[in-house]
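Quick one: 5-methyltetrahydropteroyltriglutamate--homocysteine S-methyltransferase from Triticum aestivum, structure tokens please.
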Amino acid sequence: MASHIVGYPRMGPKRELKFALESFWDGKSSAEDLEKVAADLRASIWKQMSEAGIKYIPSNTFSYYDQVLDTTAMLGAVPDRYSWTGGEIGHSTYFSMARGNATVPAMEMTKWFDTNYHFIVPELSPATKFSYASHKAVSEYKEAKALGVDTVPVLVGPVSYLLLSKAAKGVEKSFSLLSLLDSILPIYKEVVTELKAAGASWIQFDEPTLVKDLAAHELAAFSSAYAALESALSGLNVLIETYFADVPAESYKTLTSLSGVTAYGFDLVRGTKTLELIKSAGIPSGKYLFAGVVDGRNIWADDLAASLSTLQSLEAVVGKDKLVVSTSCSLMHTAVDLVNETKLDSEIKSWLAFAAQKVVEVNALGKALAGQKDEAYFAANAAAQASRRSSPRVNNEEVQKAAAALKGSDHRRATPVSARLDAQQKKLNLPILPTTTIGSFPQTMDLRRVRREYKAKKISEEEYVSAIKEEISKVVKIQEELDIDVLVHGEPERNDMVEYFGEQLSGFAFTANGWVQSYGSRCVKPPIIYGDVSRPNPMTVFWSKMAQDMTPRPMKGMLTGPVTILNWSFVRNDQPRFETCYQIALAIKKEVEDLEAGGIQVIQIDEAALREGLPLRKSEHAFYLDWAVHSFRITNCGVQDTTQIHTHMCYSNFNDIIHSIINMDADVITIENSRSDEKLLSVFREGVTYGAGIGPGVYDIHSPRIPSTEEIADRVNKMLAVLDTNILWVNPDCGLKTRKYTEVKPALTNMVAAAKLIRTQLASTK
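--- reply ---
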């Protein structure tokens, strides 16, 4: 029985690619050095899958930034501002699109469906000129073949590429991105022709937008596209891969009717309704079913007995020779290899499977279907599943009762936000257009070393506290010198905003090397929520009080909200996600109340990932938003009117959930805006009234580019055209931890200068 992997992590087991990229960007290494690291990683990945017995091994899933940007490069769809003059796209143009440069900003970055991975959004217009400008897909196929591995080249499908794109600035609203389909298909044909000539026998088109709610004309585009590609695809086996959710019935009908397609890939972990659809509607005769039964988005060991039962039921639908065991999606959303976790609790470790282990699981299921079941491997898996179900570490009756008692109240603060803002202003006495930052300040090498040495017990707690206190003092002094109004302590004690809190909450476990790519070189190490969650002790109060004692200005207490902790963790799959979220909310509520009691007047509860968790199907939005927003309100429902509650959101499209954001009932929201061409402001132009404080980001912190005072002032003036002066805040898009002080200081200087300039202008017009 054949086996298949949709995609694989790129960063390497020890984040080799991350460090190679950052060294290249800093000018410390050459392009040749970067390419050597990348080639070694690719070879290792292909070898691992080949030796594990995987038949359908992907290529072209490796990327220096993301696969959508790779497709933009393949199509030569470079926005004019990057001054690309044609030919093969090189590192300079590629990374300028991803990160910006000294003169032009980066392209928009947003979340990849409902994951914590990000992609660079293509900017297209009727004037976009397409050309075959990156031969990466073909060169990687040839590279693998030279190593003795015949791979399945993977391309982002043409229709999903267009549906994930956006119209370039200034383009008429009537412009349809799908009108460009005939312009990009000739390039896809060129790529396919070259792959065939190189010896490819299979090709995989990722068309994940098929799981979304699509209009009839969007579904028709799939039929048109693959009909147009049919002659070029002749002689190739063609797999259309979908993932992350159920495929709706109409989309399923369209997919299984596409011309020239040999196989269909489905996520049967998050797509349980698709499983029933396959059984009821069937698969066209002679076609392959790539059954995604091994979860590519979580780190729990597969329940092999349950998956084998599912696969056996599918054999009756498609036949044994047409069924392929697969992952539910690319394994890039999970950690790389459990072997590297030498310090993880042995019981919890037995419950887990990272990417390398999932490859083995996929192959074991394929062999079992073919009558070569590894009885010892299946028995060990069954024992681990039973251990997890019965472990007393998983269940806490007191926590479960407290969460159950939440029903029956909406946990909304008693006083309306307008009255609260008045009370807060009397206490805080802030100027109009108050300035602030989002939380973190640059994480220097020295700071990382201090945390590392403390964790390794190489320095004492006293030495650690002294070093962190010194860093906080430095950050406070910088902000005071810049004349920022509401300060932050810079979060020097935190490596990661979710990991920091998870380490202090019960029910969480942590890895040493469980890194997952978020975007570019940015990696995160998600906590593992394995059991019921509670807060044994205060988590941030000590540092926040220390920082507030250093300044007469308001100091924000900085917390991560329950929905973001949930969405940025590997979450237990043995109970509904909302139950876990309510438990986290109760833990954060205790922290909020302790901060308030400690004299912190402004408390920020970040919900950066609230939009990220929105289900891909509209029919499921209301239920998710209800419990997600409720969870946020639980955290701060008990504070006084004079305590100002902030929240922060970033890198998603928020316009479609603006009413839920309002329903969160925060006093102030800071929200990403600048990198997305101020898309957020359009919702206010269209008549939505927002009465709480709001700070749409005035500059993009994910680019090293330093915006001028005039540029920031221009952004603020655009905001004032749709928002009242007395509710507008001035702040960056996001936290500053990934930037250098040489970038942060001038950018914040210009931001404060812009706020003061407009205050002066407003005062002169009175």
